């Protein structure tokens, strides 16, 4: 399916949890967590250390509680890393961006530090999240919840009339968010003209930052969010939600902070960057052929990032192109340095140097980047424990990225099967994403029916291979269904870009297996 975010409501009121299909889905979710050793419970020593840190917490002295910050997140979110306020500053803008002060709760080289290093990041399974930090930090005292005074790292940006950054400050301070907002309601308020001045300026600044990204040659994948919900007949359906423009505008503020963090570290000659090489010629040629096959050819005189912005994810063929484009976003890595800026220091999709710094509740490396940047911004020595951690962080993050990617891939396989479990034997219209090829033996289920371990996948890797192929020697391809919006394996002769009729042969929740055949 290739969705960026999948959630599930297995116990929704429309379908009691006693239904066999719901029980099967819940059982599969539990098996998935066990397979990938996702431990929700924290070790007692780490919990005790967290509780002691919470009890002895002292908020920073600078007081920014008069700034009317707000948070903007998916509905229901409680792990709130960022809060925002924008105002006019002459002909330009002042953007203040508060990031949760997670380092205040984690003693360097302590039990909690060790456990967060083991976890690396919050893992989002379809039915629940496995948090990086204990719940009381993640969803309560560490989160920038509305009407609560919190410690934060406050980025202070001055922008010119074109949205270019002219000055950057960063300090620890106490803040108070005024409201916990969801994207849909913010978009509605902005469109109606009833939003606060700060939110109206978010559109103004966001659009200018998008234009700057376009000029840099940056690119992004805007795949739709999906939610799987049970139906009254014991099956499942996908509830799709297209991205709101405000999500892109808000993301531009986060990107701006990440670029500023990278610049601070590069100027200070110490830090850790998020880097990614540009796509190679072979990948670009393959992507061009895929766009031709799917009927919306990429004019290579146009940068691929600009081309991607023209695609409509609600169209199955264009959604398939977005999935295919994920192959251009490979090779992301964390690159530490101390003393000399690395030769390869650009994140190609952003088309600029970049660092992860805006999600410390959910990602390990951000905690270190925040402390490092705050020291550099205020001409202080970088703490030794930050410097000492830099060489280990790439390995820790790579391990957690791999686990997150494996969980995401397995979750997608599971959700695909759940969507179709009651439709075996039915026929569907489908677009061929990739044409027929000989069926490989590698990746097939073992002879005893057990699934082989999930293979390493890039977190944003394309799902065009669908579910793992069977041991059949028949030719197979990959097809994209419009309803439900599933990308999966299909047996039979087929040509890329054509529309064919397919029949569902298998949909097995426990084995996370979906298979079609051409009619």
Question: Can you lay out the helices and strands and say which pair or pack?
Answer:
Blueprint (H helix, E strand, L loop, with lengths): L5 E3 L11 H16 L8 H12 L13 E5 L8 E8 L2 E9 L10 H9 L3 E2 L4 E2 L4 H7 L7 E11 L5 E18 H10 L4 H20 L8 E6 L5 E6 L3 H24 L1 E6 L5 H13 L10 H6 L6 H10 L7 E6 L25 H14 L6 H6 L3 H28 L6 E11 L38 E6 L5 E5 L7 E10 L4 E6 L1
Parallel strand pairs: 1-9, 2-8, 15-17
Antiparallel strand pairs: 3-4, 4-7, 5-6, 7-8, 9-10, 11-12, 13-14, 13-16, 14-15, 16-17
Helix pairs in contact: 1-13, 2-3, 6-7, 7-11
Structure description:
The chain has 519 residues and is α+β, with helices and mostly antiparallel strands. The chain has three domains: 36-273 and 334-391, no CATH class; 280-328, no CATH class; 412-518, Nucleic acid-binding proteins (OB fold (Dihydrolipoamide Acetyltransferase, E2P)), CATH 2.40.50. The protein is 34% helix and 23% strand. It has a five-stranded mixed β-sheet, sandwiched between helices. The protein has a five-stranded mixed barrel with strand order 13-14-15-17-16. A three-stranded mixed β-sheet has the order 1-9-10, with helices on one face. α6 (197-216) crosses α7 and α7 packs across α11 (364-377). It is globular. The two termini are 21 Å apart.
């Amino acid at each position: 399916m290739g969705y960026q975010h999948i959630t599930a409501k297995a116990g929704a009121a429309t379908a009691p949890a006693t239904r066999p299909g719901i029980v099967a889905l819940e059982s599969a979710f539990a098996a998935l967590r066990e397979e990938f050793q996702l431990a929700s419970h924290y070790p007692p020593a780490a919990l005790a250390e967290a509780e002691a840190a919470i009890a002895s917490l002292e908020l920073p002295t600078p007081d920014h509680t008069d700034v009317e910050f707000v948070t903007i997140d998916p509905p229901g979110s409680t792990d709130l890393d960022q809060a925002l306020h924008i105002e006019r500053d002459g002909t330009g803008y002042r953007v203040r961006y508060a990031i949760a002060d997670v380092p205040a709760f984690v003693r360097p080289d302590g039990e909690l530090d060790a456990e967060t290093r083991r976890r690396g990041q919050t893992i989002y399974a379809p039915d629940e999240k496995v948090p990086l930090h204990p719940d009381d930090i993640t969803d309560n005292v560490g989160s920038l919840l509305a009407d609560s005074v919190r410690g934060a790292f406050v980025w202070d940006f001055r922008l010119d009339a074109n949205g270019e950054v002219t000055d950057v400050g960063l300090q620890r301070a106490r803040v108070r968010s005024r409201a916990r907002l969801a994207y849909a309601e913010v978009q509605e308020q902005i469109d109606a003209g009833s939003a606060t001045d700060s939110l109206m300026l978010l559109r103004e600044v966001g659009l200018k930052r998008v234009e700057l990204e376009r000029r840099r040659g940056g690119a992004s994948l805007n795949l739709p969010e999906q939610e799987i919900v049970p139906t009254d007949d014991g099956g499942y359906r996908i509830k799709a939600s297209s991205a709101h423009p405000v999500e892109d505008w808000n993301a531009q503020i986060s990107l701006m902070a990440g670029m500023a963090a990278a610049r601070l570290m590069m100027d200070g000659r110490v830090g850790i960057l998020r880097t990614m090489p540009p796509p190679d010629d072979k990948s670009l040629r393959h992507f061009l052929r895929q766009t031709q096959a799917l009927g919306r050819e990429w004019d290579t005189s146009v940068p691929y990032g600009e081309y991607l912005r023209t695609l409509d994810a609600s169209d199955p063929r264009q959604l398939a192109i977005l999935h295919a484009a994920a192959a251009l976003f490979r090779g992301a890595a964390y690159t530490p340095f101390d003393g000399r800026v690395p030769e390869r220091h650009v994140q190609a999709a952003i088309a600029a140097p970049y660092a992860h710094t805006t999600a410390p509740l959910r990602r390990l490396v951000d905690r270190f980047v925040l402390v490092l940047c705050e020291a550099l911004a205020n001409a202080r020595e970088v703490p030794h424990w930050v410097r000492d951690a830099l060489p280990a962080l790439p390995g820790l993050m790579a391990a957690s990225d791999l686990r997150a990617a494996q969980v995401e891939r397995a979750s997608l396989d599971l959700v695909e099967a759940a969507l179709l479990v009651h439709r075996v034997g039915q026929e569907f219209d489908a677009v061929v994403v990739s044409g027929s090829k000989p069926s490989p033996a590698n990746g097939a289920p073992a002879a005893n029916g057990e699934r082989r371990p999930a293979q390493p996948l890039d977190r944003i890797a394309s799902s065009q291979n669908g579910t793992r192929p069977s041991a059949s020697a028949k030719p197979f391809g990959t097809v994209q269904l419009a309803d439900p919006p599933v990308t999966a394996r299909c047996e039979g002769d087929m040509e890329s870009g054509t529309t064919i009729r397919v029949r569902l042969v298998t949909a097995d929740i426990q084995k996370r297996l979906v298979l079609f055949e051409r009619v």
